């Protein structure tokens, strides 16, 4: 039976449910090397949650080169797809969290900035129907931090975003879900990376439960 008061749980993909950031480390470092430079840790942190073109442009700017951001983004996408095809592991406790939500009959959506070709590589490794709705970064006109992706997921599920909980790990993702009206629980590996004043509840993924999310939502709705 669906949990009273909770319309749906909306999950980010990279870094939230799946430990794909190390794979992005490889592809981003590869792009930097291809451009004749190195990926600095500061730039790696800045690109978390950003779309491919903005990521490529940030790297170009940091390396001080004038290159085609679209071309670099295409290379990055294909290299990352190759890595994803080899297998993308769940983050600790993430699979159990998704399964517990599904057992309670709560609708689920995957809301990600990643392109469909990457998402399909991940979905191919999961049970069919794990997520009732999937919204990818290249399927919206305004990616995160714009709320369009989360509003689209809620609309496709037929629910009010104010009754949804979103799990995120990045600043753009948190901003997107908050702007859509969701209750946002941030589950980054390093909570300090989000900074202050983001408006999300910060928690370790291992500590998140359906009952806990229900209580947070109930308190928020009054």
Automatic annotation (TrEMBL):
GO terms for molecular function: hydrolase activity. It comes from the Bacteria. Keywords: Hydrolase. Signal peptide: none annotated. InterPro entries: HAD-like_sf (IPR036412), HAD-SF_hydro_IA (IPR006439), HAD_sf (IPR023214), PGP-like_dom2 (IPR023198). This is HAD family hydrolase. It comes from Nonomuraea salmonea.
């Amino acid at each position: 039976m669906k949990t009273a008061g909770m319309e749906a749980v909306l999950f980010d993909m990279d870094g939230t449910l799946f430990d794909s950031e190390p794979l992005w480390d490889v592809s981003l470092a590869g792009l930097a090397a291809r451009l004749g430079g190195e990926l600095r840790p500061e730039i790696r942190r800045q690109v978390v949650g950003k779309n491919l073109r903005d990521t490529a442009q940030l790297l170009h700017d940091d390396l001080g080169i004038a290159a085609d951001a679209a071309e670099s983004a295409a290379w990055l996408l294909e290299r990352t797809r190759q890595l994803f095809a080899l297998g993308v592991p769940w983050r600790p406790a993430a699979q159990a969290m998704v399964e517990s939500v599904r057992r309670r009959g709560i609708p689920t959506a995957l809301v990600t900035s990643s392109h469909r070709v990457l998402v399909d590589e991940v979905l191919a490794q999961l049970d069919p129907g794990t997520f009732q709705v999937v919204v990818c970064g290249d399927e919206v006109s305004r990616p995160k931090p714009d709320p369009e992706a989360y509003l689209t997921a809620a609309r496709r599920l037929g629910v009010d975003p104010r009754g949804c909980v979103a799990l995120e790990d990045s600043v753009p993702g948190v901003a997107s879900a908050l702007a859509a009206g969701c209750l946002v629980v941030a589950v980054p590996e390093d909570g300090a990376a989000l900074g202050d004043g983001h408006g999300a509840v910060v928690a370790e993924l291992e500590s998140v439960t359906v009952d806990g999310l229900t209580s947070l939502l109930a308190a928020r709705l009054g």
